[in-house]
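*** Fold description ***
***
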Amino acid sequence: MNRKIRLIWEFRGPDAEEIAKHHVIHLKEFATNEKLHFYESALSKESNYYCIAFIIVDEKDMLTYKNALKPDRGTVVND
């Protein structure tokens, strides 16, 4: 069974939410342009000054995303 991986980019500061929203657009564009599958791409507002953008991908595609987009970290998604 292929595991799902959440790749995460962190944004801090007063503009964190707007930057994270914009980053999500680019994550989706990358996946589309590269013809890569993804489950979800969204942002999570952790506080007024800290947001994350993420994309959930299959483990088999993780290195493609990681090498091209340089996420801050990744976690295994538990279904």
In short: The longest strand covers residues 4-12.
